[in-house]
Amino acid sequence: MITLDNYDFSGKKALVRVDFNVPLNDQFEITDDTRIKATIPTITKILSDGGSCILMSHLGRPKDGPTEKYSLKHLVPALSLKLGVTVKFADDCIGDEAGKMAAALKPGEVLLLENLRFYKEEEKGNEEFASKLAKLGDVWVNDAFGTAHRAHASTAIVGKFFTDKVCGKVMQAEIDNAQKVLENAESPFTAIMGGAKISDKILIIEKLLDKVDNLIIGGGMTYTFTKALGGQIGNSLLEADKQELALEILKKAEEKGVNIIMPLDNLIADDFSNDANTQVVKRGEIPDGWEGLDIGPETAELFAETIRKSKTVLWNGPMGVFEFPTFAKGTNAVADAVVQATEENNAFSLIGGGDSASAINNAGMGDRVSYVSTGGGALLEYMEGKVLPGVAALS
Ligand code: AMP
Q1: Distance (Å) from CA 154 to ligand 1 centroid
Q2: Which terminus of the chain has a smaller tally of CB atoms within 10 A, N or C?
Q3: pLDDT digit string (tens) for 341-360?
Q4: Residue 73: which domain range?
């Protein structure tokens, strides 16, 4: 695989797949620019070599072609400011106009194409569409790790039309950090798994059982474990058909000598709302009409104690419904402990995308851990051992 630093972009037009899928408010202002910031080093390297950039991305999930809400033109001012270059914009990602603008691009210039997903062909991985995109550049750079698990036209298929295919800096960092945790983790290695469902995380949990010393289980998925073990979970989240699987995971963990740490107590609510009535109860003692929406204070301390002593930490998924401040305490306590492990115990900490990344960034602690992944699903699939189409297309 060719890395960005090993390629000279001088005089080249680089077609760069970036992940500019950023959240916008009602005024089309960017509310979190993490993904844009992440791609700046890749773009800057291409420009400083004397190349030009044609940037392509998706934004949101447009259903019926061009939609104002999902137009990438809203990103042009912020991107221009960050790059110190006036970014040009093509209001169609293929076609004559995009072709002319790309052809006229001079070294040091940047062109942003309109949302790729305004064409259904993008997600279908359509070859003809990919070939039209490919005509715009001389070299393809893939820096969109967040969509690397999808075989879309711009993330994978387009690679067929290029001899020169280069791995961007975000993509490289994501792969290097995931590899570091999977292959060179220093012990004690603690994985913290949270979020809504066991079914989404089962493959990664199984893989991690061969690697970790401690597996902390929090979030909505704990209730399926608790129920399977005979506890009462009231109206908490349950995947009834995954109870057997939950017991199997516990058995495998025991066989492999992995220390599984589950909640001791839960913060429960009588409604799925920030203003619900709440109380703390022991695990497995949730009355009917109540649901567990966060770990309790004893659990937060128990989890934090293990995390703080770790040398490697992988965290994926919140400990509760952290979108409601009332139920964010457990997630914030875990975020604090991960920062302490990193800063005071010199641990390597990888925050696995999606909601855990939002949680740590919202708490203002994103730059106090070793690495915050930009890819949720993609990171999980990579760590499960799957070949990601967007990575495979680079070799
Ligand atoms: P995931 O995408 O699987 O990491 O799940 C993240 C989602 O899980 C977040 O939106 C949380 O609000 C939700 N979640 C975490 N804990 C709970 C819980 N105890 N009950 C319901 N939802 C939860």
Answers
A1: 31
A2: C
A3: 999 999 999 998 778 888 89
A4: 2-172
Confirm or deny that 292 is annotated as ligand binding. yes
Any binding-site annotation on 273? no
Last residue of a domain, one of 172, 196, 214: 172
As beta bridge partners, residue 217 has 193
292 CA distance to ligand 1 centroid (A)? 11
How many C-beta atoms lie closer than 10 Å to residue 285's C-beta? 15
Residue 309: closest CA among 214, 194, 205: 214
The reply to whether 61 sits in an annotated binding site is yes
Closest Cα partner for 261 from 234, 222, 207? 222
pTM of this structure:
0.90
Percent of the chain with pLDDT over 90: 91
Task: Please state the domain count of the chain.
Answer: 2
Q: Please state the rounded mean pLDDT for residues 112-134.
A: 98
Active-site position among 137, 352, 354, 375: 354
Element of type H or E holding 81? helix 76-83
Residue 345 sits in the same domain as residue 246 = yes
Q: Which atom of ligand 1 sits closest to the CA of residue 197?
A: 3
Mean pLDDT of 158-168: 98
Ligand 1 pocket, residues with Cβ under 6 angstroms: 195-197, 200, 219-220, 237, 292-293, 317-318, 320-321, 323, 354-355
Q: How confident is the model at residue 375 (pLDDT cuts 50, 70, 90)?
A: confident
Backbone angles phi, psi at 120, to 5 degrees: -60, -25
Report the nearest-CA residue for atom 10 of ligand 1: 321
CATH of residue 74's domain is: 3.40.50.1260
